[in-house]
């Protein structure tokens, strides 16, 4: 469970309701959905959405006929996800899933790994996903890129601020991003070097995953919201991102990555 008061306060403020539904965060949403639609087993498969937040990536699979359960450590998230049609939700920790062995056709870890700064905890979460999945099942895990904070703070114009620059430089060196002071304003995450992801999968006993850069460089474009607002242009943007999604030299440019393995 989340024991960090800074992190719990961040999520209890309810920002997950809108993060992927408004602004340029929609690109991460649409690209995650795009990759999962191509890699999940067909409905009506059972999907375990671990760390699924308010259910943003549980809602659409349920609408498409999947059996979806959200497991999340934040009570607010569980309450909101459980109100979605066709979605069940309960409290739980990615490192100790409250489910039997081999019950899921797919296990999604679309948030837990970047809130586990210790490698041993990330391996525990991956091993639990492996345990919960059926033979032939799919494991999909999301990561924040090691370079995301650098790109984002320059894009937002806050890189010149000393506190932000210190946080960014620390994240580049250690992977740990810590922003804000006090339980009401901060955010903490672990940022992955894309080249470290296969090793963590291997050490958790998982097959080598295919890595997908979700946003490419497009999340840094000033007019990305214009593309996302127009359905036709959005589809073209998704097509462009799809064409370079697994180019090794471009993976770190994305703000987020998805790694998918089949057991």
Identify the notable features of this structure and list them briefly:
single chain, 263 residues, alpha/beta, Rossmann fold, 9-stranded mixed beta sheet, 10 helices, 38% helix, 21% strand, globular
Please give the domain count.
1
- Principal-axis shape equals globular
Sheet with the most strands, sense and barrel status: 9 strands, mixed
Name of the CATH first level: Alpha Beta
Q: What are the secondary-structure elements, in order, as H or E?
A: HHEHEHEEHEHHEEHEHHE
CATH architecture: 3-Layer(aba) Sandwich
Class from secondary-structure proportions: alpha/beta
Brief account:
The protein is α/β, with parallel strands linked by helices and 263 residues long. It contains ten helices and nine strands.
Tell me what you see in this structure.
The chain is α/β, with parallel strands linked by helices and 263 residues long. The chain has a single domain, classed as Rossmann fold. Helices cover 38% and strands 21% of the residues. It has 10 helices and 9 strands. The chain has helices at residues 5-12, 25-39, 56-63, 75-81, 119-132, 148-156, 162-174, 197-203, 224-229, 231-243; strands at residues 46-50, 67-72, 87-91, 104-109, 133-145, 176-179, 187-192, 210-213, 256-262. Strands 1, 2, 3, 4, 5, 6, 7, 8 and 9 form a 9-stranded mixed sheet that branches. Strand 2 (67-72), helix 4 (75-81) and strand 3 (87-91) form a beta-alpha-beta unit. The two termini are 26 Å apart.
């Amino acid at each position: 469970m989340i024991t960090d008061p800074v992190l719990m306060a961040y999520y209890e403020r309810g920002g997950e309701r809108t993060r992927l539904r408004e602004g340029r965060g929609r690109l991460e949403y649409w690209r995650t959905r795009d990759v999962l639609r191509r890699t999940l087993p067909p409905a009506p498969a059972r999907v375990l959405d671990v760390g699924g937040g308010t259910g943003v990536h549980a809602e659409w699979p349920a609408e498409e006929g999947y059996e979806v359960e959200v497991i999340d450590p934040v009570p607010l998230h569980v309450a909101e996800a459980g109100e979605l049609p066709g979605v069940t939700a309960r409290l739980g920790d990615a490192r100790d899933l409250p489910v039997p062995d081999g019950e899921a056709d797919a296990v999604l870890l679309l948030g837990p790994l970047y809130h586990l700064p210790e490698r041993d905890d990330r391996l525990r979460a991956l091993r639990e996903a492996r345990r919960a999945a059926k033979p032939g099942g799919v494991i999909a895990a999301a990561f924040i890129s090691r370079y995301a904070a650098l790109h984002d703070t320059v894009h937002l114009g806050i890189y010149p601020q000393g506190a932000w620059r210190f946080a960014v430089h620390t994240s580049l060196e250690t992977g740990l991003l810590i922003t804000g002071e006090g339980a009401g304003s901060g955010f903490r995450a672990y940022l992955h070097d894309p080249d470290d992801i296969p090793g963590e999968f291997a050490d958790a006993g998982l097959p080598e995953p295919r890595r997908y850069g979700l946003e490419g460089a497009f999340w840094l474009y000033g007019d990305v919201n214009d593309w996302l607002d127009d359905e036709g242009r959005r589809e073209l943007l998704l097509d462009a991102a799809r064409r370079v999604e697994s180019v090794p030299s471009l993976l770190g440019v994305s703000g987020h990555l998805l790694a998918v393995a089949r057991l």
